[in-house]
Amino acid sequence: MLKKELVDRVSNELAMQKQDIGLAVDILLETMAGALEDNRRIELRGYGSFSVRSRKPRSTKNPRTGKIMNIPERKTLHFTMSKSLKEALISETE
User: Fold this and answer.
1) What residues are paired with 48 via a beta bridge?
2) Which of 31, 44, 52, 60 is most buried by its number of CB atoms within 10 A?
3) What is the residue extent of each domain of the chain?
4) Share of the chain above pLDDT 70, in %
5) Distances (CA, A) of 64 to 6, 70, 71, 91
6) Cβ atoms of residues 73 and 52 within 8 Å
7) What pTM does this model have?
8) pLDDT digits (tens, 9 = 90+) for 20-74
9) CATH number 4.10.520.10 given to 41-94
């Protein structure tokens, strides 16, 4: 689902203007990004949680050249889905 589709759907559901809903979605996403930049965990009950994790630095070999490359430490985004969302997704596939 694209951001535009989300805005359209919420706008239709609430009978509000798309620009107002678009602004609310932008504020929500900016707030979440800011919290993650500050290494804070975001928990949305019934949906899941987002957190930032660090990957250790490591060495790897370039398969094309055979040269050893050093990959520095980096941060990644981790999502853990809630139990209710996981159960809903599992029941859909069965």
Assistant:
1) 44, 81
2) 52
3) 1-38, 41-94
4) 98
5) 42, 16, 17, 43
6) no
7) 0.77
8) 999 999 999 999 999 999 999 999 999 999 999 999 999 999 999 999 999 999 9
9) yes
